[in-house]
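Q: What would this chain look like folded?
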Amino acid sequence: MYNILICDDERDIVNALKIYLSSENYNIFEAYDGQQAVDIVSREEIHLVLLDIMMPKKDGYSAIADIRKESNIPVIMITAKSEDTDKILGLNIGADDYITKPFNPVEVIARVKSQLRRYAVLGGMQKTDEVFIIGGLKLDDKQKIITNDGDVISLTPIEYEILKLLMSNPGKVFSSEEIYKKVWKAPDYGAEGTVPVHIRHIREKVEIVPSDPRYLKVVWGRGYTIRDDKKQ
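A: My prediction, written as structure tokens:
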């Protein structure tokens, strides 16, 4: 059974999300400020966090940053529909996805399941024998390890799946919408704002000079691709 932490300073929201997710037989933990969330993640085996942004004691941004120091578990932000800046900032500091208020129960459950499936794969519950190598970049999908010139690279589950998609199709250009549909396995609304943030994170982790990438390229007007420029 998966353990899900719901954190929001509004108890009605926590209770509503608890009802949705308990119906899917998830074990629910509750927190009402960012510090409580960080403390629970540090002492319990939590598999996914649903996290509000504006909270007392420690806001959601600070909580995400603290969680990311210790764990790559999926973090889904809870935001209002009008808070586009909040969504982008949350993605920038390590959130994997977001849901908006008022909630659509079907969407909440779908997004949670999608993130948990991805996390389960990276946690070793499913194995493949695929190894992808582009220049000094190596993705071993059996061991779920990525290295660059022998140095291990730590990626979040979303970042891993994006890089795997690109490395398994070297030279192929994927639009933001295509990446979102294949990785998030959901309709592509929000793709234009979400995918570029994750691409930038991957560059910062795998490229020596992120502003002049060797591997991960933008094809203007079309999307993203991966290739080894050192060969050219």
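The chain is about 40% helix and 20% strand.
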